[in-house]
């Protein structure tokens, strides 16, 4: 990864990242990303690196410990660390960089609960998780859409049925809305915009999980189908750094206390 990429180079980079994530995960993917220059790009072009890498993690279903890098870059921590991160419900976890000795703790991810931590600047990390959630939501939508086109009932694909179309459409609207929130330039109130972006992405991903499960029907519950892995993943990522419900309440409480709401976007 290098700075100052043109559009052709970005397309090539995205293709390379997608293929890399399709063939590796965990520490192996951490190593592959390091060789591609992830640390340099995160430092020099975070607005490009974070959406690209985290969105692709969601779309491919891979995982890596790169959320640690985003937090450490933000707070000026030493590379290679595992900073404690708040989790929904008031608990704290760390994202281990090595493969756990037993089963992964949460949703196939190497998260381990720790006694507690210290609150820090989490704006960029929340946006990163937001892009990961959006990527996972798009992956689920793609699976449900393809199933709707392939599955035939009463002599026609179920994609022709209005109820199925409505679920897919509602999912797409939620995803597009979350992406728009994530793409808002951070000028004023960066903490507030990142919290709202993470909340919107979490809600969109959970909406995708619910609707896509309904479209897929019974096959979506099976271990053979990959939908269940995305559902488990988004349920965990929604909770990391605060889930959609908690973050929305946090923002609402703050706005009520101050008696006004800042302008989030210049229209």
Provide a descriptive summary of the structure in words.
By secondary structure, the protein is mainly alpha-helical. Helix 1 (7-23) runs parallel beside helix 4 (46-60), helix 7 packs antiparallel against helix 8 and helix 8 (190-216) packs antiparallel against helix 10 (244-258). The mean pLDDT is 90. 61% of the residues lie in helices and 6% in strands.
Structure described in brief:
GO terms for molecular function: fatty-acyl-CoA binding; flavin adenine dinucleotide binding; glutaryl-CoA dehydrogenase activity. Pfam families: Acyl-CoA_dh_1. Helices cover 61% and strands 6% of the residues.
The CATH H-level superfamily of the largest domain is Butyryl-CoA Dehydrogenase, subunit A, domain 3
Trace the largest sheet across and list its strands: 1-2-3
In the CATH scheme, the class of the largest domain would be: Mainly Alpha
Basic shape: globular
Distance between the termini: 34 Å
- Poorly predicted runs of 5 or more residues: none
Mean pLDDT figure: 90
Number of helices: 10
CATH architecture of the largest domain: Up-down Bundle
Number of strands: 5
Helix content: 55-70%
Structural class: mainly alpha
CATH topology of the largest domain: Butyryl-CoA Dehydrogenase, subunit A, domain 3
What is the CA-atom radius of gyration, in angstroms? 19 Å
């Amino acid at each position: 990864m290098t700075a100052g990429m043109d559009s052709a180079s970005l397309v090539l980079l995205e293709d390379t990242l997608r293929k890399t994530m399709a063939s590796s995960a965990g520490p192996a993917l951490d190593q592959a990303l390091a060789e591609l220059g992830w640390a340099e790009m995160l430092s020099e072009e975070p607005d490009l690196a974070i959406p690209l890498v985290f969105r692709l993690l969601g779309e491919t279903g891979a995982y890596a410990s790169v959320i640690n890098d985003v937090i450490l870059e933000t707070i000026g921590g030493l590379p290679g660390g595992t900073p404690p991160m708040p989790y929904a419900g008031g608990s704290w976890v760390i994202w281990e960089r090595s493969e756990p000795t037993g089963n992964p703790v949460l949703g196939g991810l190497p998260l381990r609960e720790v006694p507690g931590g210290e609150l820090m600047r989490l704006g960029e990390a929340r946006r990163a998780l937001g892009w990961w959630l959006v990527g996972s939501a798009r992956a689920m939508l793609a699976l449900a859409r393809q199933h709707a086109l392939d599955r035939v009932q009463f002599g026609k694909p179920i994609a022709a049925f209005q109820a199925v179309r409505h679920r897919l459409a509602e999912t797409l609207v939620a995803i597009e809305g979350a992406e728009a929130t994530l793409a808002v330039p951070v000028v004023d109130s960066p903490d507030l915009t990142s919290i709202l972006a993470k909340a919107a992405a979490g809600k969109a991903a959970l909406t995708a999980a619910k609707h896509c499960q309904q479209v897929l029907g019974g096959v979506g519950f099976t271990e053979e189908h990959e939908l269940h892995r995305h559902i488990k993943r988004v349920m965990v990522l929604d909770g990391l750094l605060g889930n959609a419900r908690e973050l929305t309440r946090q923002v609402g409480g703050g706005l009520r206390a101050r008696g006004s709401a800042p302008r989030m976007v210049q229209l």
